[in-house]
Write a structure and sequence with these properties.
Number of helices: 7
Shape: rod-shaped
Strand content: under 5%
Distance between the termini: 143 Å
Mean pLDDT: 85
Number of strands: 0
């Protein structure tokens, strides 16, 4: 009896016990959480999906090689400056056409 009397002050009251139990998760809370975790796991990418994604990516070395083979801004500027306009192209075609017709006439007279 003395042991019980000594232990009694350290024990929780019914009110404290009920308050503590009300803060604990019940079966439906745990079931819902387990279902959410299972759904999250199922929606994750599979190993095959991840490997496929990785295979489709360019490697760092391939990227650096591709960038090194690109034209520089100065080269691009020079190319733009040297480009032929459509009007210039047509004028040159007309000029070549005229020369060709003259050559045809010369050969016909020979």
């Amino acid at each position: 009896r003395q042991d019980i009397e000594k232990a009694l002050p350290t024990k929780a009251s019914k009110t404290d016990l009920n308050a503590g139990l009300s803060q604990k998760a019940n079966v439906s809370d745990v079931s819902r959480t387990v279902a959410e975790v299972a759904s999250t796991i199922e929606s994750r990418a599979s190993l095959e999906d991840v490997q496929s994604i990785i295979e489709d990516k360019i490697s760092r070395t391939e990227l650096l090689n591709a960038l090194n083979n690109k034209i520089g801004t100065e080269e691009f500027r020079l190319a733009v400056e040297k480009r032929v306009t459509i009007e210039d192209f047509h004028a040159e075609l007309r000029n070549l056409n005229s020369k060709f017709e003259e050559m045809q006439k010369e050969f016909q007279y020979r």
